[in-house]
Amino acid sequence: MKINGEHYRSVWPIGEDAFGIIDQTRLPHEFVTLTLRSADDAAHAIKSMQTRGAPLIGAVGAYGLALAVREDASDDNIQAVLEMLEETRPTAINLKWALWRMRGTLMNQPHGKRAALAWAEAAKIADEDVAMSEAIGWNGLKIIEQVAARKPGQPVNILTHCNAGWLATVDYGTALAPIYMAHDAGVKLHVWVDETRPRNQGASLTAFELGSHGVPHAIIADNAGGHYMQKGQVDLVIVGTDRVTANGDVANKIGTYLKALAAQDNGVPFYVALPSSTIDWTLDSGADIPIEERGADEMLKIAGRTTDGKVVTVEIAAPGSPAANPAFDVTPARLVTGLITERGVCPATPEGLRNLFPKS
Ligand code: MRU
Question: Could you tell me the pTM of the whole model?
Answer without folding.
Answer: 0.97
